[in-house]
Amino acid sequence: MRRINKPRTPNNVSPDGQPPRPFQAAERDFLRALAAVTDRSGCARSTFDSLAKPKLRAVLYVEQGSLCVYCERRVVERHPPPHIEHWRPLGLNPQLALHWRNLYLSCPNPATCDCRKHETPLRAADGDPDLPWPVDHAYEHCVGFTSLGEIYVRSDAPLDDAQRKALVLAVGVPHDNAMTDNGILNLNHPALIAARAAAIDSERSRLKRRFDKRTLSRPEREAIATNHLGNYPLAEFVSIRVGWLRKTLGVGR
Questions:
Q1: Is the pTM of this model over 0.90?
Q2: N or C: which terminus of the chain carries fewer CB neighbours within 10 A?
């Protein structure tokens, strides 16, 4: 999970064969229609479903570096395509169905992320605010990773108490024999832990090949981490790769 910049909306969200319509115009027309209906969730769902999803995803891929907003798996345009996730669930927030800051790509894995979350809000208790959108919050400063590939909420994360509880509930804890499925997003699923550990191994092997096994200086490691964050597409599980390069794995646990 990382901060995501969303500088522009799609310039055409109409299905092929229909007159072009910018996303902002579609949202404006939707909000006008929403004010006049009683079934707000139904109206929101049908309007969102009427948009040309590949055209939305094309912009979202660029914004997210082609990584899932939650787990940082690679997301690509294939069957099944990644989900267009409503960070604040559509059923509870129909007015945000076409709000660009509320839309993100999530991988289609059935055990984690949006498939796991469905309509569950990212908050710890009724009455609490939802977790901030990634466009508004630097989640890379809130979550950490262990060298085994586990994800956790950092003790020094810039979060208030309600946000911390919500993020802990969203992420989940590492699995063991007694607890094999937990968290709104289930981000400590064994497959994800193994994949993150493999990402560290790939970084280690790549640097050994590139630098002939010599020890890199801190500025050299930082330059590689910065390069990772500037690439498109981003490397899968980029946050743990950067954490390993910057030697911050396990910090704030």
A1: yes
A2: C
Helix axes 40-49, 23-34, angle to 10 degrees: 160
Identify the CA nearest to 138 among candidates 73, 224, 253, 229: 229
Task: Tell me the C-alpha distance between 165 and 118, whole Å.
Answer: 19
Per the structure block, which two tokens stand in for 249? 């794995």
Residue whose C-alpha is closest to residue 159's, from 128, 187, 184, 185: 128
- 197 phi and psi, to 5 degrees? -60, -40
Strands 103-106 and 83-86: antiparallel
Question: How many residues does the structure list for the chain?
Answer: 253
CA atoms of 72 and 238, how far apart (whole Å): 7
For 160, counting Cβ atoms within 10 Å of its Cβ (0-12 exposed, 13-18 middle, 19+ buried), the class is exposed
Going from N- to C-terminal start, the domains of the chain cover 23-108, 139-245
DSSP state of 149: S
Determine the residue type at 156: D
What residues have CB less than 8 Å from 19, skipping those under 6 apart? none
On whether the CB atoms of residues 122 and 131 are closer than 8 A, the answer is yes
In one letter, which amino acid is 216? L
pLDDT, tens digit only, all 253 positions of the chain: 999 999 999 999 999 999 999 999 999 999 999 999 999 999 999 999 999 999 999 999 999 999 999 999 999 999 889 999 999 999 999 999 999 999 999 999 999 999 999 999 999 999 999 999 999 999 999 999 999 999 999 999 999 999 999 999 999 988 776 776 789 999 999 999 999 999 999 999 999 888 887 888 999 999 999 999 999 999 999 999 999 999 999 999 9
